[in-house]
Amino acid sequence: MDISGLTACDREPIHIPGAIQPHGLLLIVDPERMVVAAGAGNVEARLSVDDFVGRPLDDILPSEIAARAHAVAARRSPLTYVGLARSVRGELLDVTAHLSGDRLIVELEAGDVDGAPPGVLLNDLETVAAAFERAPTLEDLCRVAAVEFRRLTGYDRVMIYRFLDDESGSVVAEDRREDLRSFLNHRFPASDIPKQARALYLRNPIRVIPDIDYEPAPVRPSTGPEPLDLSDASLRSVSPIHLQYLRNMGVAASASVSIVKDGALWGLVACHNATPRTIPYAVRGACRALGGALARQIKVKDETDAFRERVRLRSFQDDLVSLLSREGSLDDAISNHVDEIRRAFGGDGVVILRGPDLLTNGRCPSYAEIREIAAWALPRSVETVFATDHLLSLCPPAQSCPDLASGLLSITLSTNEPWQVIWLRAEEIETIEWAGNPHKDDHGEPGAALTPRASFEVWRERVSGRSRRWTTSELEAAGRLRSAVVEVWQARRLRELNRRL
Ligand code: BLA
Q1: Is pLDDT of 352 > 70?
Q2: Architecture of the 19-110 domain
Q3: Residue 159 to residue 173: CA distance in whole angstroms
């Protein structure tokens, strides 16, 4: 095992494959002299040139396109569309240019002669973006997105794939040809999309493999010891391990669009086709724009949900504090409202401990077990809120009652007595449906050739020892509740002292 935490998959240098996918052509140009230094793909036949090395770019491509490519280099612009070129053979080619180190990379791909006119595509974009806005929940949004991306790309299957905390991922929405099996709600391990690929997809938001059985077209002449970084090239030849993965899945063409929220890769729009199929440049542009619109709406839905939750918790807190501030015993006020205190934070049980007194509501362990769990939680929640959704693995006393205390949220109102409020959540046994067994190490022995998983048959795993997670809003509200109660209590003590003096 590697101590750096990187797997062999994570180390494959996918940005410098030294080759492209052969559906397009690549020219590597010296940006100072605008002379072609190398190329890849069937340049000679498609552009009707005998030899391209050492030729000025505007000898090979129309001069206005070569001039625009030059401007991309001069301005150090990101990947830019520089025009539609008609080859001597009459083929229409979309041309893009971008810089890689001190080289200008010019890519040519068949133009979309039968595609929708730009006006139609733009209208479509507006309509779909508006549909995203109208989707009432995150789930609806993802469902609409799967349908619309499928309509736009014409692929057989489109999935919205969301990364989880452990970097595995789950298919949260899917639109597919009816006769295909569903991957909806299936989980895929982190290793299926290794670290460097995820980093690359953050930088470069869309990739297409129109035909997984392609023969890579090497860059020639070779660029020497300095490998050419093709991170931003649309034609970059992809990892052979991934091609095998797709073959094992029964896929002939694959594309994915990054969903980037707050600078992090939230997920991918993953598209499959059972037969080879490309996505022309203009449609890729539309996919990029929709990927951005989708990410923005995901953020809006997340923020709306968090806002609603915050408002609910705040109004509960205001009510509680106003109750506590009235005269009468603080303990009585709390005990009379213990059920609301439990429910406001979504606890299955709640425990209030003050010195020798112990008050419970909902489903709670035995008093002896509560005492032990509370003693364990006390030092962890002195000045702060302590919360976990996997108490069993942290707190030995909780192991006797997983069904009652797999999740814990604890605040300390006073350390002297001590005075604590503890919310408990029951264990939620989850059955994860993996596409293939993620624990089976069929990625090859160290040093041997890496291989992807061969089976995507449903493999069920029962995950125990965890509760529903505490939300950020709940943790914030628990912190505010603690400060509010402490304030009320201190104010009362001060008043009592003054009265006595
Ligand atoms: C890349 N793996 C990918 C990509 C996806 C997946 C979407 C991006 C490239 C693309 O768009 O096709 C995985 N595809 C999925 C998943 C679903 C899907 C999870 O449709 C689920 C719905 N893969 C392995 C192993 C390794 C591996 C064991 O299974 C490593 C040894 C590697 N996957 C791998 C690599 C890439 C990749 C290296 C990058 C390919 C590239 O861009 O060059």
Answers
A1: yes
A2: 2-Layer Sandwich (3.30)
A3: 6
Cβ contact 363:453 at 8 Å: no
Domain positions in the chain are 8-15+113-303, 19-110, 326-427+468-500
Going from the Cα of 192 to the center of ligand 1, the distance in angstroms, rounded, reads 5
Sign, CA dihedral 487-488-493-499, equals positive
Residue type, 131: A
Which residue has better confidence, 141 or 323? 141
Domain boundaries 8-15+113-303, corresponding CATH code: 3.30.450.40
The Cα–Cα gap between 85 and 94 comes to 7
Using a 6 Å cutoff on CB, does residue 188 contact ligand 1?
yes
Residues 15, 231: Cα–Cα separation, whole Å: 5
User: Ligand 1: does its nearest atom lie under 6 Å from the Cβ of 268?
Assistant: yes
Q: Which fold has domain 326-427+468-500?
A: Beta-Lactamase (3.30.450)
Whether 43 lines ligand 1, by a CB cut-off of 6 Å, is no
Q: Does pLDDT of 489 surpass 90?
A: no
Give per-residue pLDDT as tens, 9-36: 888 899 999 999 999 999 999 999 999 9
CB atoms within 10 A of CB 141: 23
Peptide bond into 189 cis (omega under 30): no
Average pLDDT, the chain: 91
Mutation test of ligand 1: which of 168, 193, 235, 244 has the most ligand atoms closer than 8 Å to its C-beta?
Answer: 193
What secondary structure letter does DSSP report for 117?
P
Distance 254 CA to ligand 1 centre (A): 10
Pair 434, 461: CB distance under 8 Å? yes
Report the candidate in 59, 11, 14 with the shortest Cα–Cα distance to residue 239: 14
- Within this chain, domains 19-110 and 326-427+468-500 share the same CATH topology: yes
Q: Is 197 in the pocket of ligand 1 (CB under 6 A)?
A: yes
271 lines ligand 1 (CB under 6 A): no
